Amino acid sequence: MRRWIKDPLAILAANPAEGAERGIVVEGGRIVELVGRGQEPAAPVDAVFDAGRHVALPGLVNTHHHFFQTLTRAHPDAINKELFPWLQALYPVWSRLTPDGFRLATRLALTELLMSGCTAASDHHYLFPDGLESAMDIQVEEATALGMRMTVTRGSMNLSVKDGGLPPDNVVQDEDTILADCERVLSRYHDTSEGGLIRVALAPCAPFTVTKRLMTDSVGLAERFDCRLHTHLGETHDEDAYCLEHYGCRPVEYLEEIGWMNERVWLAHGIHFNDDEVERLGRHRVGVSHCPTSNMVLASGQCRTKELEAMGAPVGLGVDGSASNDSSNLMEGVRHALMINRLTYGSGAVTHFDVLRWATEGSARCLGRDDIGAVAVGKQADLALYTLDELRFSGAGDPLAALVLCGAHKADRVMLAGEWKVEDGMPVGIDVERLRVEHGTAAKRFLEAL
Ligand SMILES: [Zn+2]
Hints:
This protein is an alpha/beta fold and 450 residues long.
């Protein structure tokens, strides 16, 4: 079916010079034509969607999250703490995670992301207490049921308190178990085809929760299966101190030592880098997932987005886990990125185009995908359409700037591979109220089990 998304209020096209003022035509799950000013589609269309009330963006791409944390938002033991004490307060709670709770957490986080305009998500899942061995299978089932693109990252932790790590002993697995499951998940689900919905990445959690051997062994597996590698790095000064004490070097030197300095890698946060490290990360095209909301909540610091990008590193956006965000709204993250980056770089140096680029093209590059993240002919037809009907937009001049500056937070329409997944602000086929009740009940039960 050829469908014309006609006459949007504004559209963020990859190359504005090509012109897409009269919208785009999608067919077979892809964008097949941009319709410029005064033009009509080149061939007859089967359906027309009047986008006269909508501002159109490429579907947003989320590069860092922890879905399970939706069960512990604003947790009283963790609020008002920085990363290490925050983690230490939450690990014992998280160790009680069950498959049913995890399934609802995944469903809720994916739905929440989708409703904010996100069409491709990644989740860094590193928690495998006894009984939750099928975590990756649960995530693939949920993403597939929703029809959402997802990079499932098989996370891991094998360095617990008894070995000098941060997490308690009952939430880690041994290295052989981890690598065997990584191989199983890659063999079963990793789909590198153009437009493929599910991809797998390997994601040892952080320098202070994973042994050096597991980091290096993960590289071999990633090369064998041609998948990406992800980890937390450079989030706090505590991490710098940990690396100096345990590995005798700073986090980026450690990354180099374990074979992670290459374009297969994207890092979560990437805040505390010096000039030399920024240059090295850029030269090796290591991606960085900037998580502005989480960084502000935990007072971790500001990612050096502009310098990293200037040096060649892909910069994407992530909401980060819902215990440090504490929501999963990527469009809100776009606004937060604008604000914190302006505080650092000045208001002329960071525009709404920069932050929207990070949330789309930049994020897609972090995930190693060139088939999504832009409105251009040949790309997947993944779109997020926002209306400007709420009071907060009334009086706005520039529609694209208004999305970011006035605070768009809810897409009216979301298209994924040419199919509508959100209509009139609601996800198609999902009973949102029921989901909220079921998830809320699971979270309550989870916390009461302590
Ligand atoms: Zn994280």
